[in-house]
Input
Amino acid sequence: MKPPFTLEQFLEVFKNYNEAVFPMQLIFYLLSAIVIYLTLRHNPVASIIISAILAFLWLWMGGVYHIVFFTAINKFAYLFGLLFIMQGFLFLMGLFQNKFSFKFSFDIYGITGVILIIFALISYPVLGYFVGHVYPYSPTFGLPCPTTIFTLGILLFNIKKCPVTMLIIPLIWSVIGVMAAFQFGIVEDIGMIFAGLVTVILLLYRNRTLNAQKQFL
Output
């Protein structure tokens, strides 16, 4: 399906957003560092803070990026904004329902999570730079695609059973991100579909394992 805007218009939205919200990009990187640090602490307070930060990021992307900026060229962004805001509230609900306990560990979940986080924070902007997406005409951290990959990486650190509802919207956006990669040459977004599929497969497998352990006990 052909998008209702051109590549130039798409990149102009990034420019307008980046210039309008600066220095929030730096604050988002600081928040990501706090999240990563807290996954090493592994205590209830740390998990609460992580959940709150993830909720804030998704609410920000839905309300600020999609609804305030992206709707200028794409009216579907109102729907995207609503979905991202819903995801933010899902994190808040999970926080209050004690659904999260984030802990880094040297296993397939932790290692995959680290790979996704590194890609979102470092490889994504570097790859974008080398294909010509130079700031401010670039999707910075705090925007949907890199932040979705980061979120998926952090969810892999959750040692509790992950609610399936938490995975639906990030997976949907992973598919949309791949469309942008092929239609507009945003090649850094190709990592979205791999992040989405791998995370969903691993977390569903861990849910099944946790259910089996619970039944055994």
About this structure: The mean pLDDT is 93.
